[in-house]
Amino acid sequence: MHGLVIKNTGSWYTVKTDDGRIVESKVKGTFRLKGIRSTSPVVVGDRVHLVINTEGTAFISDIEDRRNYIIRKSSNLSKQSHIIAANIDQALLVVTINYPHTSTVFIDRFLASAEAYRIPVVLVFNKTDLLNTDEMRYQQMLITLYQTIGYHCVAVSAETGAGMQTLQALLVGKVSLLSGNSGVGKSTLINRLLPDAHLRTAEISDAHNAGTHTTTFSEMLQLPEGGYVIDTPGIKGFGTFDIEKEELGSYFKEIFEFSKDCRFNNCTHTHEPGCAVLRAVENHYISESRYLSYLNMLEDKDERKYREAY
Ligand SMILES: Nc1nc2c(ncn2[C@@H]2O[C@H](COP(=O)(O)OP(=O)(O)O)[C@@H](O)[C@H]2O)c(=O)[nH]1
Ligand SMILES: [Mg+2]
Ligand SMILES: [Zn+2]
């Protein structure tokens, strides 16, 4: 029997089997996962093999290779990190032009880390109902910019429901990680996508009666039209990625494209003669805000300070 882990409440895992059943499962005590050093060996999004017991529960007997995953560092000091979710099809980065303002540096750092983890991003511009004419114009400019680079963009209002059908269509049949600064409307979006989200969460926590907050565990929320949304409070990105200065440019799609014409292949696109990226910035083929974000991330590397992914 094969299935998908959709929830983790400590030692129990909720698995949706390929024939559509929900089975509460455990990892067998003796079972060790090859090459995985993590506080929790199985995570939401994992594809697993099950051995069903007579009581209707199951043991997880194997885990399939992960396409990708997101990690959380245990603390800033410790190097230990654990995997939170695996096999993510896309990340939804919820941003707001205002109330609160989301900076392009924040957006670009997120996009670069998503590139490093090879996870496509959909930019969800929320709270469009609050924007005045100038803010609307600015939002449209950003949408044009990011679409030109190659990112899906959708403008919505979780409050009025505007644009929500377009967003829903992008989620069908996929596992989407919900990300974004606090206050941008992630919970409001979830409630609109899943009108019974609160009810369901309460039910499941009762069933396990663990006395713990379900929110501390990852869960994939099942969308009515098919597909899942992962809402993991406190997880904004994919964890750190460690790269050389010369590599950073490859995580900015358009910088990467232009860098192929740089004279030196270890060009950092800051001062080098024959730099095609600098020329593209001067000629406005690369936007100044994107280039500034690139420099901002490059600076982190210079200072060698501890660095979150964005
Ligand atoms: N006007 C307006 N308010 C919104 C919208 N989406 C969310 N909000 C409000 O913004 C605040 C923060 O939303 P919340 O969903 O808690 O944000 P989260 O921190 O990202 O989960 C709440 O007061 C919401 O009612 C929207 O599209 N328009
Ligand atoms: Mg929230
Ligand atoms: Zn260059």
TrEMBL record:
<keyword id="KW-0547">Nucleotide-binding</keyword>
<feature type="domain" description="EngC GTPase">
    <location>
        <begin position="86"/>
        <end position="236"/>
    </location>
</feature>
<comment type="similarity">
    <text>Belongs to the TRAFAC class YlqF/YawG GTPase family. RsgA subfamily.</text>
</comment>
<keyword id="KW-0699">rRNA-binding</keyword>
<keyword id="KW-0690">Ribosome biogenesis</keyword>
<dbReference type="InterPro" id="IPR027417">
    <property type="entry name" value="P-loop_NTPase"/>
</dbReference>
<dbReference type="Pfam" id="PF03193">
    <property type="entry name" value="RsgA_GTPase"/>
</dbReference>
<keyword id="KW-0963">Cytoplasm</keyword>
<comment type="subunit">
    <text>Monomer. Associates with 30S ribosomal subunit, binds 16S rRNA.</text>
</comment>
<feature type="binding site">
    <location>
        <begin position="180"/>
        <end position="188"/>
    </location>
    <ligand>
        <name>GTP</name>
    </ligand>
</feature>
<feature type="domain" description="CP-type G">
    <location>
        <begin position="77"/>
        <end position="238"/>
    </location>
</feature>
<keyword id="KW-0479">Metal-binding</keyword>
<dbReference type="Pfam" id="PF16745">
    <property type="entry name" value="RsgA_N"/>
</dbReference>
<keyword id="KW-0378">Hydrolase</keyword>
<dbReference type="GO" id="GO:0046872">
    <property type="term" value="F:metal ion binding"/>
</dbReference>
<feature type="binding site">
    <location>
        <position position="262"/>
    </location>
    <ligand>
        <name>Zn(2+)</name>
    </ligand>
</feature>
<dbReference type="GO" id="GO:0042274">
    <property type="term" value="P:ribosomal small subunit biogenesis"/>
</dbReference>
<dbReference type="GO" id="GO:0019843">
    <property type="term" value="F:rRNA binding"/>
</dbReference>
<feature type="binding site">
    <location>
        <begin position="126"/>
        <end position="129"/>
    </location>
    <ligand>
        <name>GTP</name>
    </ligand>
</feature>
<keyword id="KW-0694">RNA-binding</keyword>
<feature type="binding site">
    <location>
        <position position="267"/>
    </location>
    <ligand>
        <name>Zn(2+)</name>
    </ligand>
</feature>
<dbReference type="InterPro" id="IPR012340">
    <property type="entry name" value="NA-bd_OB-fold"/>
</dbReference>
<keyword id="KW-0342">GTP-binding</keyword>
<dbReference type="InterPro" id="IPR004881">
    <property type="entry name" value="Ribosome_biogen_GTPase_RsgA"/>
</dbReference>
<dbReference type="InterPro" id="IPR030378">
    <property type="entry name" value="G_CP_dom"/>
</dbReference>
<dbReference type="InterPro" id="IPR010914">
    <property type="entry name" value="RsgA_GTPase_dom"/>
</dbReference>
<dbReference type="InterPro" id="IPR031944">
    <property type="entry name" value="RsgA_N"/>
</dbReference>
<protein>
    <recommendedName>
        <fullName>Small ribosomal subunit biogenesis GTPase RsgA</fullName>
        <ecNumber>3.6.1.-</ecNumber>
    </recommendedName>
</protein>
<keyword id="KW-0862">Zinc</keyword>
<dbReference type="GO" id="GO:0005737">
    <property type="term" value="C:cytoplasm"/>
</dbReference>
<comment type="function">
    <text>One of several proteins that assist in the late maturation steps of the functional core of the 30S ribosomal subunit. Helps release RbfA from mature subunits. May play a role in the assembly of ribosomal proteins into the subunit. Circularly permuted GTPase that catalyzes slow GTP hydrolysis, GTPase activity is stimulated by the 30S ribosomal subunit.</text>
</comment>
<feature type="binding site">
    <location>
        <position position="269"/>
    </location>
    <ligand>
        <name>Zn(2+)</name>
    </ligand>
</feature>
<dbReference type="GO" id="GO:0003924">
    <property type="term" value="F:GTPase activity"/>
</dbReference>
<feature type="binding site">
    <location>
        <position position="275"/>
    </location>
    <ligand>
        <name>Zn(2+)</name>
    </ligand>
</feature>
<dbReference type="GO" id="GO:0005525">
    <property type="term" value="F:GTP binding"/>
</dbReference>
